[in-house]
Amino acid sequence: LEEEDANDLTELLDDGLGANDDDESGNQSDEGDESDPETARPDDSTDTSNPRPRSRPLPPWLKSQFDVKVKASAQRDTDGLPALYREHRFWFSVEDPYFSLRSSIESLTPQNLYQAQFFLWDPAALLSSSDRIKCPRCNFSGLMRDGSLARPRRCIDLDHTFWTIGYRYRCPTCTNPRSKKTTVTLCSWDSRVIRNLPRALAACFPAMLTSRSGISESVFMFMRSCFQSGMGAKQFSDALRVRHLENYDKLHLQYLSKLARGKGIYEFRGKRFPRFLAFEDTSTDGYHGFTPSSQWLRDLFDKFIDDHRLDFDQAIALLTARICAIYHSFKLAKHIAKVNGEQVFIALLTITNEKGEIRVCNLVATKSHSQFELSLDRMRESLERYGHDQPEIFYTDNMADKDFLERCFPSLRESVISVEKYAHLPPLDLP
Questions:
Q1: What span, in angstroms and rounded, lies between the C-alpha atoms of 298 and 304?
Q2: Looking at per-residue confidence, does 189 or 138 come out higher?
Q3: For helices 309-317 and 294-307, what crossing angle results, to 10°?
Q4: pTM: predicted TM-score of the whole model, two decimal places
Q5: Per the record, which residues fall in region Disordered (predicted)?
Q6: Of 29, 235, 265, 284, which has the fewest beta carbons less than 10 angstroms from its beta carbon?
Q7: DSSP code at position 372
Q8: Would you call 197 helix, strand, or coil by DSSP?
Q9: Where are the alpha helices (DSSP H) in 338-401?
Q10: Coil, strand, or helix at residue 86?
Q11: Which sign, positive or negative, has the C-alpha torsion 124, 67, 74, 115?
């Protein structure tokens, strides 16, 4: 829009200012269900005398779209499949904003353009009666569907937010320790439920969840690549926010363009239209936009690394080490928390192989050989266990490592004739 046209549009827009809400907590659609140990926060407590604060209600425009999807999913065929699954789809179709503008000329509001994307997750409907989901607690009974969850789970994608519609599953034999009744329920997106699914079906779930929110798996994998290429969590968080704001601004521009085309007739009829509110506005008419902070992304990445630590260790143990380089880096240790003002670690010891792959990575308190001797012994054992050749060459910037490395790897002495010290000088003959 030209600046002059944009200024003229202010006459058609109401002075609608959304109410601000300082509470930025996410959505919690699984209140009352058993807590997922992989997404529960340390401060999540089962003590009913001090319950967690409840989430704010969904905005009306989102609640209405959610209710329509849940109602449609409740219509099942004889096999228990909703219409969406009969069409071989997990995602509900989304109306393009352009058609939303065309179909709502007389009652045009910004909310007409807020078309949320929904993902339906009811894996129990896709399994046969002989292949029901096992209860993660008793590992015996098959879980039974016990209705849909009252709230969808918000998940962050590259430039928008999508919402997962889940179901509550109940174990027919597990009893609640308080009520002594069979009221133990889990969400369909609980990590323990997903682990008990066939691998092909579990791979269809598109998000990684936290205690109240989530992020799409494709964005998380892209974030891993960015981190590997040197991009920090703060920079990635900022880039993600820019993409979300650009997508929201595009909707705003479409809205203003529609008003600009009918400006004359709207003024003649004295019709006014509501303004587009801020991206983060949490009033009933607000967009309720959200992008994760850098700390949130960092914590999610750290948890992923911790969960897959054994896999990473195994992958490193399978690497070759024919030609190695050993060195100490002092930069990383400066960013590690100190104890009583003193550094616990002074350096990061790294050993790379002939392909530039990290074979050993240890934080050390001193440069003493005793700090990493055990790691070298484990490296020698793994090379022998997986049929790799022992090291032939070691590069180091400290010649004092020579005897130590030869003791850890006897292969370094094979076919090597050591040069005697001062061999270029004639021997001294004493009378």
A1: 10
A2: 189
A3: 60
A4: 0.80
A5: 1-61
A6: 265
A7: T
A8: coil
A9: 373-385
A10: helix
A11: negative
Average pLDDT of the chain to the nearest whole number: 86
Q: Take residue 53 and report the two structure tokens written for it.
A: 């604060």
Q: What is the pLDDT of residues 33-45, one digit of tens each?
A: 666 777 755 444 4
Backbone angles phi, psi at 398, to 5 degrees: -130, 110
- Binned at pLDDT 50, 70 and 90, residue 68 comes out as very high
Which single residue is written with the structure tokens 């791979």?
A: 203
For CA atoms 126, 127, 128, 133, give the dihedral sign.
negative
Would you say the C-alpha torsion 32, 189, 217, 41 has a positive or negative sign?
positive
Nearest to 186 by CA among 255, 114, 138: 138
- Structure-block tokens of residue 420: 């005697």
Residue 360 · residue 351 · CB < 8 Å: yes
Instruction: Return the pLDDT at 22.
Output: 36
How far apart, in whole angstroms, are the C-alpha atoms of residue 280 and residue 288?
Answer: 5
% of residues, the chain, pLDDT over 70: 87
83 in Cβ contact with 125 (< 8 Å): no
* Distance between CA atoms of residues 301 and 297, nearest Å: 6
